[in-house]
Amino acid sequence: MSSEPKIRFGIIGCADISRKVSRAITLAPNAELSAVASRTLEKATAFAKANNFPPDAKIYGSYEALLDDPEIDVVYIPLPTTLHLKWASLAAQKKKHILLEKPVAVCATELDQILAACEANGVQFMDGTMWLHHPRTAKMKEFLHSKDGFGELKTVHSCLTFAADESFHKENIRVKPDLDSLGALGDVGWYCTYSILWAADYEMPKSVIATPGAVISEAGVILACGASLHWEDGKSATFHCSFLTNMTSTITALGTKGTLQVNDLVIPVVEKEASFVLSSNTRVDDLMTSWVPAPSQHVVSTDLPQEVCLIQELSHLVWEVKVNGGQPDLTWASRSRKTQQILDAVKVSIEKGFQTVEIGT
């Protein structure tokens, strides 16, 4: 990948997460940070300066101007979720490949329109779920696929939370229904549902049931919620997501022979290394004083942070389409859509008084 010429990225919107992604684009060996746009030229200029954009990077005072730039290959869109349909669809129509921040849409119906625009214009789509691209993730999947070590997946538990401060609850877009109506479900809940799907090899559950006790703000935005997911073959999963409790980022996958545990799924405790714990064919010793064999901790190091790995992978896919005449990889769009479908079902379950909701196609 690193030998390929660089793919040129533009960013529309100066959200906080754009700082992290702009750094990742700069560090990726096959990407180039080429432009930024905001609703005002002053804001875009200040953002570029604060985030060490290259001196030749273009600064635009409107999103449309950046999308009209023929030299931009990929557009990163970190705008509020309610604006994704408009700007991602327009970006696709302008033949720009798309990196779309999560949650990717307000609902699966809107996402389908975005993906239809991508397909019609032959552009690559990827969402901004960074942990999927960390080399740790591939190592963990190897264990989940080991018949002797892990066996058959039976259940998954995921928990993603952080304690937001007072200013967050007053000002952040994630608690404003006109900007991001899914609240905690769309933000940290996105990671929960995606991690469950990942563990289940993206096999969709048959139904979901939201957990009673969801916390809803006065504005009608979800601040904390949970759900259980159920598959036709008997697999199950649970998750909890919240803006109200201390930072937690865990997933536990339980198989007939083994267990996988991660305590820093979304953002590793240390940027360039990440760990996970495995136990396999575990029992207690004869005196019932210790585990045999003991769980093992595995550390995976990487020269490139996970967000850089994401940019590198996306750039490679775009190069295959742009130069080699390949087709966009639809895997990423499919996974995003499945995640969005589950979020939709959980939201409906909450609205219906925590009733079971069947998952459609």
TrEMBL record:
- Cite the GFO/IDH/MocA-like oxidoreductase domain residue spans from the record: 140-260
Instruction: Describe the location of the Gfo/Idh/MocA-like oxidoreductase N-terminal domain by residue ranges.
Output: 7-126
Please report which protein family the annotation says this sequence is part of.
Belongs to the Gfo/Idh/MocA family.
For molecular function, the Gene Ontology terms on record are: nucleotide binding
Q: Name one Pfam family in it.
A: GFO_IDH_MocA
Q: What is this protein called?
A: Gfo/Idh/MocA-like oxidoreductase N-terminal domain-containing protein
